[in-house]
Every structure is written in structure tokens, then in C-alpha cells.
């Protein structure tokens, strides 16, 4: 089988995956009211669904939505494999390097801010983010790290007095 | 006139040295941020929102209003000069403003954009002041039925008005609704057992999602000259043209 629209194929796949994951997650919650009396729950499937819709539990709405999303995603997926599209809708190459570097920089900043403080995390952020593209040299990176750290201190700590840790690493 | 009287009170509040300074700072920051491609007015306000926590309500509102107007205007600068819209609304400016710049009339285009921005901001403010009182009357009569209708309208609109495939737009609406389901379950009072952090109890904030979708997802398509040109078989594109092409492509970068 040939993929006729690359974009539709991958987006359909993502929709189906997200729908299935959410549907599985939703089954951890109650679908309907607690079965205090055993009798209504033992009734037929049709009556059960009617009862669910009348008194939905926490898992009812997310489950329905997730199934809908998976179905729509499956239709997108099906279309991507059957209908011809112009030029195959190629996704093209990903710019992995900036994507990974910047996401890693920001995620690392978020994870390390509490234990280490701004004084350590901002230089780290700048250095890791600089791996994303062609920077003129390490001097520029260091200068930017210095300026941004001082700027963040002046703006956030000195100016606005936000409760952000600045040098918790050095202060112990 | 009641309207003029109230506007007078507003101007009286605004015309203090301190508040004018806040307005200036906000507009300056907003313009600077608006110039950056990919970060629009909403993202600019989201980024600068923590900065207002230390301020009183009035200066904070003035600062953020300045940021908003500045960011809306700032997008036009790069649109005119380098044909890269700083944000979606500057896309039309890209079309004719850059043509003027190519003919050596960049200064004229920039001042027209600034004057147009100023004029539209003033007219918009007066229009809001005129329409707001009857609108609040209407808002009081809003019941569950109206909210439901409004939500249906919003969801249908979100699906229909998107450029590109209708099916995928519906899927994206469903995805958005699903992401909104992630919270502690206020009505049901259930706790999210499988979720780990405090953040997940409060749900996924719109700002986090917006920055993730619009800024981080765009990173994969940025063309900093290290490969990853969208589409193949074309001649080499410089960074500016490439970014421009990505944003002109309907539904190209945001899907």
C-alpha cells in the first residue's frame, strides 16, 4: 500500500494514537453513576447506555470524545491511503537540530530552575539553545548568557521582586 | 455626554507621568516582541504577564494594553522591511508594504502602518466604549441555553473557518476538547490518579498549549540554513524567503 498524502497519513496517525490513549485513560474513571443497587447495572446494554447518558460519570465525556477523535483520525488515515493528492503532500525534512536543542534547553531550564536558580539555569539555557543554529562563536554565546542573566536579575529580582530563586545553588 | 465624560475620566487616569511611562514601556516592549516572527500579541502578553504581578491593577492594565497595541503594530515592521510577517495579522502588510519597500518607499510604508495602527486603535477604543453598555445588558440575560449555543457556534466556527481540510479541523476541535478534559474533575470531584504533577491537577493552560503549538512546533520548520526546507525540488531559498513561504502556505506551519 502506498501513502498518497504524507501529511494526512501522519496527522491521521497522531489523531488515532491520541484518541486511543485518551480512551484508555478515560476507562480509569467511572462511566456512569455508582452501582449502589445492582439491578440497573445488570440490565441490558441499551438500558445501560441510556442510564450513562442520563447520569454521566467523569469518564463518560472524555471517552466519547476520544472515540470520536480516533474515528475521525481513522477516516483521515483512510483518505490518505486511497485518494490521490497533488505531489504526495510531502512533509519534507525536519529541522531536528533546532527542535531538539531548543526544547531541551527550555525543558532543562524548567526542571533545574527550582534546585539551581536563575544564575545557573540561564547560562545553561543560552548555551544549549545556541547549539540550535550556527552562532558566530563561543564569545557571543558567553556574552549573551552574561547579559541575559544580569538582565533577568535586574528585571525579575531587583525590579519586580518576583519570588524566583536566583542563586540557590551557591547559597546552598 | 456620558461617554465623553467617562472617556475624560479614563484620560485623567492615564495622563499621569507614571502611567504614561508604563504605556510607553508596554508599547516599546510590545513592538519589540511583535517584530519577532512567530510571537504575536497574545504570546507577548502571556510572556509579560508575570511582570505585572508586582504592579497595581491600573498600571498593569495600561502596560498590557501598550504591549498589545505595540505587538499588533510591531509585526508590520518586519513585514515591510524583510517580507516576514511578525504575526498572522501582518500578512496583508507583507503583500503591499514590502512592494513599497522594494520600490524604495519603505519609510512611507512604515509611517502609513504606524498611523494606520494609531487610527485603528483610537477608533476601536471608542467603538468599544460605545457598544460596551448595551453589550453588558445583553450579557446579564445570558443563561445556560445561550452559553450552549455560543459554544456550539464557536466549535462549528473553529471547524469551518480553518483553512485546509474540514475533516482535520474537526479532529483538531476534538483534540482541543480532549486536552481540556485534563484536570482534577471539578464537577465529579475525582482526582487524576495517573497524573503526576500539581500542574496537571489544574489542567493544561491555554498559554502553555499556545506557546507549545505555535512556537515549538514551528521550530521543526524554521529554516536557519541548516537544511529542512519545506517541500523539495525548488531552487535554494534564503532564510527570509523560506520563512515567508512557510507562512504563505495555508495551513503550512500550523496543522
Helix content of chain A: 55-70%
Radius of gyration of chain A: 26 Å
Radius of gyration of chain B (CA) equals 22 Å
Oligomeric nature of the chains = heterodimer
Proportion of strand residues of chain B: under 5%
Are there runs of chain B of 5+ residues with pLDDT below 50, and where?
A: 192-197, 224-255
Strand content of chain A: under 5%
Q: What does this protein look like?
A:
The complex is a heterodimer of chains A (172) and B (255). By secondary structure, chain A is mainly alpha-helical. Chain A has two domains: 6-89; 96-171, no CATH class. Chain A has eight helices and no strands. Chain A has helices spanning 6-26, 38-42, 45-54, 60-82, 96-116, 118-130, 138-159, 168-171. In chain A, helix 5 (96-116) runs antiparallel to helix 6 (118-130). The mean pLDDT of chain A is 78. By secondary structure, chain B is mainly alpha-helical. Chain B contains eleven helices and no strands. Chain B has helices spanning 2-14, 17-35, 41-48, 57-82, 91-102, 106-140, 144-160, 166-180, 198-201, 206-219, 239-248. The longest helix of chain B has 35 residues, at 106-140. The termini of chain B are far apart. Mean pLDDT of chain B is 73; it is low at 192-197 and 224-255. The interface between A and B is large, with 45 and 36 residues.
